[in-house]
């Protein structure tokens, strides 16, 4: 997170984790403070999905709106777009963005992808599929509130539009004198990589770096807007929703030291869709001048599920009743008053192995235990076979951040920590069994597909007018 001229005085959190390692579940957990095993969102929603985040789940936006905040989501939603699942009915006063991932529909600016995808067809003879990973039948829509204002969306200019809408929202909220909550969900580091300006080099790694710089500049623009007025009352929290999508090779980024070496030796990737560190450990920065210590790095164990209870607490609002939360109020850690994060974190299956949403991996202090392992599709096309472990594989991350060599089951260290791991998982599952849990509707209906012009190939249309404050 960097403005054009200076490095921000932000706190950095290096043991911070997404609540899942794929799109819809991680976003649902961020906005509810609850893992998918509680909130019902265990895998991604589709273009034709009827449902979304269950309606009995209360979003962070709904809580803050009830507390007097103006709320907005700008960017990717991916928690249901049909009927009452649309963000305007989930606590957000304003919505500008795309309903799911930007590779889930064709565009006229297809960008960098592996395999490459074609632009949207313009006549029926051109609708044949160009690879199973490419969407060609329906164009990617751009929503403003409940209205599709562009289909296909112009991805080349989308980042600039997001920045403009975000700064407008902040300005209007400031003028209103009311507090605001802005959930800015960018898609820069997810293929296809589409740049406002083409990279200077034709080499494949360059588009990723260029996209990262563009995202950096956009976040910097938002920060500069906040710094221009009211920064002493405004908290910026920057993080990610999952690790790199390894099958996209050079266009996916890097897991850094979190290589999941044990899995890589057996095939498949240990990044997105897996429960290896490279799947769910994500960057995190927190910025609030005068409140969050500047240029401090924290190793406290934290999660995106903490965002919900922390912001609710800071807003002096109340958590929704009759349910339990996986996140905690970590404001004391953010403010440098404590260094004690979670003792345990639970990592749900996210597509690579096991039943989606089930807990087959967990963290206990520096130890990481796996009851099920598997590798997602890697750049070389390999997939790691699902394996079950009883007793579990246990890694000491303080000594083996690459997750390369599990502890010997006969070693004293293994025998000492196994009872605590077993007890932690047992207690967690018992807590789930007595909680108010939800079930998501994952059914499909072609009629639920966002389409502004069914008479035109790929639903192509262009709205003439839109207003930021159009009512839902």
Automatic annotation (TrEMBL):
Which GO annotations describe the biological process of this protein? Answer: methylation
What's a Gene Ontology MF term here? N-sulfoglucosamine-3-sulfatase activity
**Enzyme Commission number(s) of this protein:** 3.1.6.1, 3.1.6.15
UniProt keyword terms in alphabetical order: Calcium, Disulfide bond, Glycoprotein, Hydrolase, Lysosome, Metal-binding, Methyltransferase, Signal, Transferase
Instruction: Give all residue intervals belonging to the Sulfatase N-terminal domain.
Output: 11-316
Q: Which cofactors does this protein require?
A: Ca(2+)
Q: Which Pfam families match?
A: Sulfatase (PF00884), Sulfatase_C (PF14707)
Q: Which GO terms describe its cellular component?
A: lysosome
Q: Look at the named UniProt entry and state the broad enzyme category this protein falls under.
A: hydrolase
Reaction(s) the record says it catalyses: an aryl sulfate + H2O = a phenol + sulfate + H(+); Hydrolysis of the 3-sulfate groups of the N-sulfo-D-glucosamine 3-O-sulfate units of heparin
InterPro entries attached here?
Alkaline_phosphatase_core_sf, Sulfatase, Sulfatase_CS, Sulfatase_N
Q: Where in the cell is it found?
A: Lysosome
* UniProt cross-references to PROSITE patterns, sorted A to Z: SULFATASE_1 (PS00523), SULFATASE_2 (PS00149)
Q: Can you tell me which family this protein belongs to?
A: Belongs to the sulfatase family.
Q: Report the protein name in the record.
A: Arylsulfatase G
* Organism this protein belongs to: Platysternon megacephalum (big-headed turtle)
């Amino acid at each position: 997170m960097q403005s054009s001229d200076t490095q921000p005085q932000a706190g950095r959190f290096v043991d911070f984790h997404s609540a899942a390692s794929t799109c819809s579940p991680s976003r649902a957990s961020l906005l509810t403070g609850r893992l998918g095993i509680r909130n019902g969102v265990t895998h991604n929603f589709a273009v034709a999905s009827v449902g979304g985040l269950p309606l009995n789940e209360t979003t962070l936006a709904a809580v803050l709106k009830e507390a007097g905040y103006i709320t907005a989501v700008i960017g990717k939603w991916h928690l249901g777009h049909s009927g009452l699942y649309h963000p305007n009915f989930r606590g957000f006063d304003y919505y500008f963005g795309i309903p799911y991932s930007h590779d889930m529909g064709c565009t006229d600016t297809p960008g960098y992808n592996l395999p490459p995808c074609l632009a949207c067809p313009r006549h029926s003879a051109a609708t044949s599929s160009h690879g199973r990973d490419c969407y060609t039948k329906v164009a990617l829509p751009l929503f403003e509130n409940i209205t599709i204002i562009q289909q296909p969306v112009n991805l080349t200019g989308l980042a600039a539009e997001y920045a403009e809408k975000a700064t407008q929202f902040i300005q209007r909220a400031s003028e209103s004198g009311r507090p605001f909550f802005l959930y800015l969900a960018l898609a820069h580091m997810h293929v296809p990589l589409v740049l406002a300006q083409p990279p200077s080099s034709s080499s494949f790694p360059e588009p990723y770096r260029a996209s990262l710089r563009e995202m950096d500049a956009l976040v910097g623009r938002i920060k500069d807007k906040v710094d221009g007025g009211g920064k002493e009352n405004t908290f910026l929290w920057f993080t990610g929703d999952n690790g790199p999508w390894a099958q996209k090779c050079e266009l996916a980024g890097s897991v850094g030291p979190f290589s999941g070496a044990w899995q890589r030796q057996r095939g498949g990737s240990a990044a997105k869709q897996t429960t290896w560190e490279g799947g769910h450990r994500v960057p995190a920065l927190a910025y609030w001048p005068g409140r969050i210590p500047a240029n401090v790095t924290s190793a406290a164990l934290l999660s995106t599920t903490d965002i919900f209870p922390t912001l609710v607490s800071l807003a002096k609002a109340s958590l929704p009743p009759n349910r339990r939360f996986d996140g905690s109020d970590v404001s004391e850690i953010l403010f440098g008053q404590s260094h004690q994060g979670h003792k345990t974190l639970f990592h749900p299956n996210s597509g690579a192995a096991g039943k989606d949403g089930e807990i087959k991996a967990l963290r206990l202090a520096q130890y990481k235990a796996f009851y099920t392992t598997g590798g997602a599709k890697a750049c070389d096309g390999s997939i790691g076979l699902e394996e079950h472990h009883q007793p579990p594989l246990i890694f000491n991350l303080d000594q083996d951040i690459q997750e390369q060599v599990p502890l010997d089951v006969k070693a004293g260290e293994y025998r000492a920590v196994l009872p605590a791991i077993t007890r932690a998982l047992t207690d967690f599952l018992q807590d789930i069994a007595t909680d108010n849990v939800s079930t998501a509707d994952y059914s499909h209906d072609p009629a639920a597909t966002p389409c502004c012009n069914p008479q035109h190939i790929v639903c192509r249309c262009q709205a003439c007018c839109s207003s930021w404050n159009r009512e839902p």
